[in-house]
Amino acid sequence: MEGLLGGFATVFQPATLMYCFIGVFLGTIVGILPGLGPLTTIALLLPITYKMDVTSAIIMLSGIYYGVAYGGTITSVLMRIPGEASSVVTCLDGYEMARKGRAGAALGIAAIGSFVAGTIGVVAVSYLSPPLSRWVLAFGPAEYAMVMLAGLSLVTYFSSGSRLKALLMAGFGLLLGAVGSDPLAAAPRLTFGIFHLTGGIDLAPLAIGLFGISEVLSMVLRKKEKMQVLAPPSSLLGFMPNREEARRSVGPVARGTVLGFIVGLIPGGGAVLATFLSYAVEKKLSKHPEQFGKGAVEGLAGPESANNSGTAGAFVPLLCMGVPANAITALLLGAFMIHGVAPGPTIMERQPELFWGVIASMYVGNVMLLILNLPLVGLFVKILDVPRAWLAPIILTVCLIGVYSTNSAAMDVLLAVMFGVIGYILRRYGYDLGIVILAYVLGVIFERSVRQALAISDGDLGIFVSSPLTITFAVITAVLVGLAFVPRKRAPGPADAAIAVAEVSQVK
Amino acid sequence: MIRIPALKVLAAAAGACLFGALAAHAADDWPRKEITLINNYPPGSATELTARAIARSIEKTIGKPVIIKAVPGGAGQLGPAELARSAPDGYTIGLVGSSSYLTAPHMMDMPFDAWKSFDLIAQAAELRYGVGVRKDSPIKSVQDIIDQSKKKRLTYSSTSPNNVLPLFQMAKLNGANLRWVTFAGGAESVLQAVGGHVDLTLQSATEMKPQIDAGNLRLLASTSPERWPDYPDVPTLRELGFDYISFGPMGYAFPKGVDPKVRDRMEKAFEIALKDPEVLDQLKKLGVAPSYRTGAEFYDHMKKMEPLFIQILTEAGMKTR
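^ Those are the sequences you sent over. The predicted structure of the assembly is below.
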């Protein structure tokens, strides 16, 4: 508790407060702009934060991460275009509510549900992190190796679209992570004789290329079309749900919060998976499952809460173990390392002001988002009017400057452009680029852990199933791999419908 | 026939003049921007905390920020490898420990030759090392390591080939059966022993102290020539009759070919830093021994130690290259 109070003292310094605001504000905006997601934005801002104070930098980048879930809701409800993957499910019932003239109530419920879930998620992070970081001692090389394996299997299994494509992307990410010097013996590999690559591929050119530059390319090549926006309410009162809607939201918000947080904890989980699961749960529990997809309040309230607590949950493995649960926290891990902070069990003792500052900033950020979002929805929607002809060159310039400024190396710019083209092609054919980044970051830890474990066991593979933890992770992996061979049921679930929506909006 | 080479010479001479002028100019207004210091171990490690303390003082002296960039891995050799391939423009320096000169080249394929790749600035400090076990370990003494490992192979965690020398010697000369597991960072390495994933850990005082103080780790012996000031009751290996030490001087260098004037100014900045009471106080808290040598003295020191190390490495069966 004392730590958390100290954290608030950090956040309420004017400069820190400002960075927190910039973070959530940017998060909302990129949440609204379709395509431009938190990954691109955090990748872009990463080099800019190099010279900032570490606490402010992490607070700002985290603000983007949890702010996006709010912004994404707005376009999902008003335009049936998910601004962000974690709002895809909201397109189903949120948009239908808006069409029935309940746009205000839909946005209101989503914002309040997000606020409740975000805040409860943060409270859970602050209470769970200290005991969890002691539990981390149970993780030796074998446990780390197996949790990575289970995490990668989870990501692959739950990815939208083809599992084969997801598996390919995981392999591609692992391969990229292996470029450079051997992590134990320093021997160069996969460098194609290029000197620059003996240091490996840096996070900045890879992330900015895959997400930033490929986004610019898609923008340019996308057809122009007039977007249809349903009108948001003009007064604050318009956001109030009626009594019936409020009553029906309570249960889904509570369940979504708990479910989202737990899913967020799992490597490979995170906000997107949480929304799909929450939607499925609400539909199963509902007395009127036939209303789902036609404007059911539960189908909006549950997932909208789950994506916010899922975001909070993903911070636990990041802060306590230094293990990213998804692509965004993988980037945040990169930001920590660049700033000379190693997240892990010792972070609470060594850098309490940073640890608690980030957590306190999430409380404050959630309040800011609530205040920011409801009254300003009309204004935010206007952002969509910015012509792409202006947006694309600005983003491209920021991308290239960002990449070059990291190492002042022209080779990095070349790499970024190359990854931009690769990213564009992969995106075009429906490959999930988030998996590439996650596998790239996890792969290095995975390889090191496997080799350390084998050094301990003298080459005996039995070490990977030698403790309750490793066995658990091994079973999870085996089950997921087994399930992957079972063909998917063709009864269209919520995920399929939502994916269809997402794909339609992507093609546009 | 003669005119072309003459032209070439002229051009070369003009080029050299121009380059010389530029170089002189570069040295005069150095530093124009921040300096990057490559450290070979992750954030929070003993070397990183030491570099951070010294960097604060150097910033005051040269008037530009010093940014620490962590390049961990490869048993501490990836950092110097990156330094070796950096431009010698005076804006990149890095930690070059004795392992890059004395141990690593004899144990692994190195992407650089430390003797030829650097312009040394100075030696700043020496790390203190020790060997420890988790609190409930059946290993109570150094003799226990030898006795118990004869029944069952013991594993130990450590970051650099320099640290582990004593345990290699113990294995070779006393018949102990020990296996080294490399970790990229010291804190991580120590936690593996606390968590019971390896039997022993051999790390620096900075990294072991928090866990010893918390009662999670027992220090069996100092592997430095002296006892640790914080734990004066714990003997050194040497006092226990094992004449082996971990050798941990921390040198800093530019990539080869930097302007000598720039190198001299940086050397001066290090000398000032090692007299700065604030730096000395911080190093004391970290359990790191301040120990200044000029760049030339550090190089000579390494050269002097080389035959001894080759002998030890050969005896311990570590010399494979």
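Chain A has one domain: 2-507. Strands of chain A lie at 180-181, 188-189.

Shout if you want it in another format.
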